[in-house]
Amino acid sequence: MYEELHVFTVIVEQSSMNKASALLNLSQPALSRKLAKLEDEIGVELFRRIGKRLELTRIGQLTYEYALELKQLHRSYLQTVSEFTATGRTTLTIGASLTTLQTTLPDLIQLLTSTHPECDIKAITGKTHEIVSYVREHRVDIGLVASSIDDPSLRCAPLFDDHLLLVLPRNHFVTDKGSLHIQDLNGLPMILFSKGTWYRILTDELFEKHHISPDVRMEIDSFEAILRLLHTCRAGTLLPKSYMRDQLLEDNDLIAVPIRELEEAKRTTSLIHVAPAALSPTVREYINEITARYN
Fold first, then answer.
1. In the prediction, which pLDDT does 74 show?
2. Which CATH architecture does the domain made up of 164-265 adopt?
3. Can you give the residue ranges of the HTH lysR-type domain (predicted)?
4. 62: Cα separation from own chain's centroid
5. Longest dimension (CA), the chain
6. Is residue 154 within 8 Å of 135, Cβ to Cβ?
7. Boundaries of CATH 1.10.10.10 in the chain?
């Protein structure tokens, strides 16, 4: 079928059976037989024949788009095989949203490089909707996003649930109250992550739901920078639990304070990819390892 799809794309792009026949070095009857074979396999006509002119049907248009994707996938597969044959190495390109870039990606890279030292990992970052597009367009092999994705063209594998923690400088005045509640964030000096990520959206939704108006001192797109500035600004912040480590808290002289309302507001970090049949065996193996690691 791959050969017939290639013939079909040439016919579409040349808009002429005669031109396609010459380009493919096939007789016109042979070309017609290959097209007829493809239409028989699919079960529908791909062209409307209007005089000497060929016009794609709706199924023909979908088939052309599929053929282009298959051609790109085949080219990528051959390139991967060529690279591995020449160097003994493989390449995995990961798309990571701004949140997972800082929470999940470092651990994931460490996992893969320890089990697959022959794998060269590349990363592309962006907002969640951009990562979804990168995966759909085969610009990356897999995507890491801090939400569940409902897209019929993609597979979405949940890795773990995440929620926010209140992070404060040790001995911050608000801790004198003892057990803290969501209302204790009202008027609290805070440094928040920049707008546009699930984490900031979740933060703003919580504030709105509980009628909280914190004193926002700064908005920064780096978790590390936020932590370093908390003492200077005598401020608190809300960060994903997946990012916080005991050593990180200790190194920055900080504490993480659980608050029930924050723990109840969960989001799922997910791995997304196209249909397994469209992936190389190596990428499928990596996906299986990653999902087994978290489940």
1. 74
2. 3-Layer(aba) Sandwich (3.40)
3. 1-57
4. 24
5. 87
6. yes
7. 2-81
pLDDT averaged over consecutive 10-residue blocks of the chain (295 residues)? 83 83 85 86 84 82 84 72 65 91 89 87 91 94 93 94 92 76 92 84 91 94 91 92 90 91 88 90 90 88
What is the structure's pLDDT at 80? 67
Q: Which two tokens stand for residue 17?
A: 């059976």
Q: At a CB cut-off of 8 Å and minimum separation 6, what does 87 contact?
A: none
Could you count the other beta carbons within 10 Å of the beta carbon of residue 205? 11
Give the span between the Cα atoms of 188 and 201, in whole angstroms. Answer: 19
Model-level pTM? 0.64
According to CATH, the topology of domain 2-81 is: Arc Repressor Mutant, subunit A (1.10.10)
Find the length of the chain.
Answer: 295
* Euclidean distance between CA atoms 128 and 173, whole angstroms: 36
